[in-house]
Automatic annotation (TrEMBL):
Annotated keywords: ATP-binding, Cell membrane, Membrane, Nucleotide-binding, Transport
Domain of life: Bacteria
KW Membrane (keyword) present: yes
UniProt name for this protein: ABC transporter ATP-binding protein
Signal peptide: none
Pfam families: ABC_tran (PF00005), BCA_ABC_TP_C (PF12399)
Biological source species: Noviherbaspirillum cavernae
Length: 237
């Protein structure tokens, strides 16, 4: 469904992405890992219309989308969350999700809005002010807002960052369940490698803007280049 071909992103003298080629099949659950500054978020920006890549192609179901606006990516069925939560802190949970529905150009039927809120387990909080929620709940809200655009491909950028170990596990379970329920294809960037590895089907590793490895969690965890670039202690554990 997603085909990324020789993707490059240059910021002045810095090559944040170099010739990244990766395919994601319909229904796949792919994890993306790599050190800080490896280009993971830049990768998402370039495949969701936030950045115009310097080179390469981004195809959704065969249609070239590189250089198009975020709105065009949204219409093609891509939704994403941001590493720094982008919720409206002074609005309620319900108002945030309603806004996201409007952005996705889906008539904001209260029934659908409530379904998404229930499915992301924030039903009891829907009249709470979003900015006052604890981090884990804000992350669930972000996922709800991404779902409100009726995506086929969901891109999650560190939705478990800053959460406790138990909360990270909960988020992984939530994503897996939503994926089944809505038939989503998911790409998930996360530093919580242990949880990620046991949740996803496939792992891609970025390092200095390059795709260092791409394979099953077992293959990637055993890859000496990945161990020396990133995993180190995680693997010995
Ligand atoms: N808009 C920008 N202008 C200039 N440099 C940028 C810009 N965005 C990112 N970079 C640089 O590109 C590189 C990749 O950054 P990116 O945010 O994609 O890394 P990351 O893998 O998401 O890291 P982290 O795990 O810390 O989130 C970094 O060196 C970063 O400083
Ligand atoms: Mg990042």
């Amino acid at each position: 469904m997603l085909s990324v071909q020789m993707l490059g992103m240059q910021f002045g003298g810095l090559k944040a992405l170099s010739d990244v080629t990766m395919d994601v099949k319909h229904g796949e659950f792919v994890g993306v890992i790599g050190p800080n500054g490896a280009g993971k978020t830049t990768f998402f920006h370039a495949i969701s219309g936030v950045h115009v890549p310097t080179s390469g192609k981004v195809l959704i179901d065969g249609a070239e989308l590189q250089g198009k606006t975020p709105d065009a990516f949204c219409r093609a069925g891509i939704a994403r969350t941001f590493q720094t939560p982008r919720i409206f802190g002074d609005m309620t949970v319900l108002e945030n999700v309603r806004f996201a529905f409007l952005f996705g150009n889906h008539g904001a039927s209260e029934e659908l809005i409530n379904e998404v809120i229930e499915e992301t387990h924030i039903g009891a909080l829907k009249n709470e002010i979003a900015g006052a929620l604890p981090p884990a709940r804000q992350r669930q809200l972000e996922i709800a807002m991404a779902l409100a655009t009726s995506p086929r491909l969901l891109l999650l950028d560190e939705v478990a960052a800053g959460l406790t170990e138990g909360e990270v596990e909960d988020v992984a379970r939530l994503i897996s369940r939503l994926r089944q329920q809505y038939g989503l294809t998911v790409v998930w960037i996360e530093h919580a490698v242990r949880t990620l590895m046991k949740t996803v089907d496939r792992v891609a590793v970025l390092n200095f803007g390059q795709l260092l490895a791409d394979g099953s969690p077992e293959q990637v965890a055993a890859d000496p280049r990945v161990i020396s670039a990133y995993l180190g202690d995680e693997v010995s554990e």
